[in-house]
């Protein structure tokens, strides 16, 4: 049987502020929803995105890592009206040295999905954004329409006041895959920091060799690591059946004179854990915030 092919424009929401904070300017970006029809109830669909961006390091407000790579622009793909966490794809991943030389073009194609009733562009949401720190374990694919919600508890076990992780969005769901089920844990937020003196107190907290009281004048410049995040998966009896984690490898720099960054760093993390590898059924997820291991 032959096939009919169509391509419909799909709007892309460009998060200009988030992109500009880490140095990206979007010249243009377009997307299409491509549908191939093999029969009345037999369709294949995919999303194709292309665009052009520029990296302008002079526009980057603050830097929170030592990486030589520019924070990647991220494609965020979701269904409208669904509570299922989105999927992510790096549009680009380039060194700052290369990215600053010229405009960069990108093209990404989602994984193809099968359906009996094709989706329309009005059913989908595609966004281009960026974070200071990102660790996303997912593919550019259509999120499932429904997922089984799993209870999530956020526990702050940090002992220091200089830098805190504020979680603004967290969710855990069991989502069906082709041949298995996946526990998808999604988290995002900011790392808030206190005064220069609070950061100094954290910086010297483990230094038992000092004979004199440290001062900002004597210690600047210095940096303090942001907290780490541990993920624990429990079954109905409270038995630990899986663990994961997010190590940002980021820090808050205090410059000479006690000068602080102009804003807190934004972060996103997403992990996918194979339910079939667990010894029980996931019923609760604990997101535990702990001090940086420095």
From TrEMBL:
Domain of life according to the entry: Bacteria
The name this protein goes by in its record: Uncharacterized protein
